[in-house]
Amino acid sequence: MAQRWTNKLTAKDVTPEHMFWNRRKILAGLAGAGLGSIAGGVSAQEAELEANTWEDVTSYNNFYEFGTSKEDPAHYAKYMTTAPWSVEIGGLVDKPGAYGFEQIMEAMTIEERLYRFRCVEAWSMVIPWQGFELADLLNLAGVQDGAKYVAFETLYRPEEMVGTRFPVLDWPYREGLRLDEAMNPLTIMATGIFGKPLPNQNGAPLRLVVPWKYGFKSIKSVVKITLTDKQPETSWNMTNPGEYGFYSNVNPEVSHPRWSQATERRIGGGLFAQREPTLMFNGYEDEVASLYEGMDLTKSF
Ligand SMILES: Nc1nc2c(c(=O)[nH]1)N[C@H]1C(S)=C(S)[C@@H](COP(=O)(O)O)O[C@H]1N2
Ligand SMILES: [Mo]
What we know:
Blueprint: H1 11-14, H2 37-40, H3 44-47, H4 54-59, H5 72-76, E1 86-91, E2 97-100, H6 101-107, E3 111-118, E4 123-133, H7 134-141, E5 149-154, E6 174-178, H8 179-183, E7 188-193, E8 196-197, E9 207-209, E10 222-228, H9 235-239, E11 263-266, E12 276-277, H10 285-288
Parallel strand pairs: 1-10, 4-11
Antiparallel strand pairs: 1-2, 3-4, 4-7, 5-6, 5-10, 7-8, 7-9, 11-12
Bound molecules: the ligand Nc1nc2c(c(=O)[nH]1)N[C@H]1C(S)=C(S)[C@@H](COP(=O)(O)O)O[C@H]1N2 and molybdenum atom.
């Protein structure tokens, strides 16, 4: 059953009792950006979104640490230990150190966000996430002047991650954002889907979600965040710089070298479902286009 979040949902509707933490607040149904949309209800664009099913979201995944096929993560990610978990935050921050997952959850405000999710392979889903704004976590660590980028790394634990036995990517999986992208209120660290803690295959216990960028930017099972003054290396760009740039903004006008990005196939739509047109910045143009003013997006792809 496809589920649709609305502003009428309360925290109780979407959040199992055991998920409440001391200072957690649930802003239920805050679809899309939530930029001023709480009081006024969901915007027209957001109201059209209908979530994929739990089954779609948890059985068709990319998580190469567990293999390269879409079914592998659902089979093998269960071997990843996610507790205890901590995130090493370092580089140009006032308070570097290991931040425990529980400590982070205590300090953060957890919200609901219904986001379009667009893979570079030209398929998409709509996923109801729970999480907190990345900006809040970075501010907790205290971003110093001079920081311009944020680098992320996934857990690398070969004995629990069968896919890392193969040199498909240069492990650990790495991603990066410009600081202003990281601080944008759309950018979240997700800790759950459908009101439940993140399943391992979706990047437990916490993963990045950047809804206007291709899916591979949304790095899973994050253990390290580093503030830097230099553009960080990113796994897909290291592997194939001609195909995967640093920015990776969803852009129907810029083709992947081997296929068009103009349309997408919604997962779960059935065999004969029409392909849908892909939207500039995955539909978040109003919120993020200004970040790229003056840039040539065919060169900075
Ligand atoms: N650590 C890690 N993060 C990752 C990936 C990966 O292989 N390893 N795949 C990326 C890609 S290509 C996509 S499309 C999304 C898929 O997220 P989902 O499985 O939750 O839909 O995760 C991204 N994050
Ligand atoms: Mo992807």
